User: Fold this.
Amino acid sequence: MGKLVVSWSPVHGQSGTTANTVALASMFSLDQPYRSLLTHTQLTFSTLESLYAKGNRATGFDDAGMDALERLVKSNLLKPEAVSDYTDTIYKNRLDLLFGNQKEQEESQENEDMFRSILHKAKIFYDVLWVDAHSGIYNPTTRTLLKDADLVLVNLPQNRYVIERFFSGEDFPEELKEKNYLALISMYDEKAAYSLRNIRRSNKVKIPMYSIPYATGFRDAANQSMVTEFFGRSVQVKKGDASYPFIRSLRDVNQVILKQLGYTAAEDDDL
Assistant:
C-alpha cells in the first residue's frame, strides 16, 4: 500500500504550497525509484495543473482526470492498476498527474467520499500520493486528508505573524496532533532577520523545519508551463549553478520524507 503525503498551509496564497508540492514531487520522482501520483483537492483545475500544462492535457477532455475516475467509481469498475490510464505522464513510470474536474462542483460529503475512494484505489498502485490540499482549517476534505495522511507538509511563509499563529495553536488543526509533519518555510530569504534559526528559537519549534529558497529559474519555468523540463535539467545541477541551493533544499527535504515514509533512498553520490 502506498503512502499519502498531504501538502497544506494554514493560510491561502502566501505559502507557496502548490509550488512546493510540485517541486518536491518532481525532484523526488527523478531521484528515487518510486512511482508517484500528484493531484489536488480543488473541485476544478488549480494552479498545479497550469505548471505542467505545456505538452500535457489541460482542457477539453472528458476521458481522463477526476471526471473519468468518478464515473468508474460510481459504476464500481475502478481497478487500482487502471488509475494511471486516466492521468497525464510527467516522468514515465515515475510521476503521473491526476487532473481535477472539468466542471464546477460544490463541496459535499458525496464528493469527499468519492475523492477518498479514488485515493484508496490509487494507493494500491502508486508508492506515493502527493496531494496539494486546500488551505485553512475549515475545509472538511482537507481535515479528512490531514487525518488520513502518512505525512503532512506544513507550508509557511517567512512571515512572523503567520508562523506564530500556527505554532501558538491559533491556526493549528486538531488533526495534526499525534501526526508526523514537517514545516517548510517557503520562498526563504537567508538574509532576512527572521531566519530559520530565529523562527525555531522564538517559537520553540521541536518538529523538523526546513527552508525552500526562492528560485528565479523555477518561477520562470512555472510561468512558462515548463516545469517538467526545468526539473529534467536540474537532475545534474552542480554547485555554483543559480538553481543549486533550491534543488539542494528539495533533495534535503525529500530525504527526510523518504525516512518518514519508511522508504529506502536511492544510492547516488551525486544526489
About this structure: Residues 3-261 form a domain with the Rossmann fold fold (CATH 3.40.50.300). The beta strands are 3-8, 36-40, 88-91, 95-97, 128-132, 151-157, 181-188, 209-213. The longest helix spans residues 244-261.
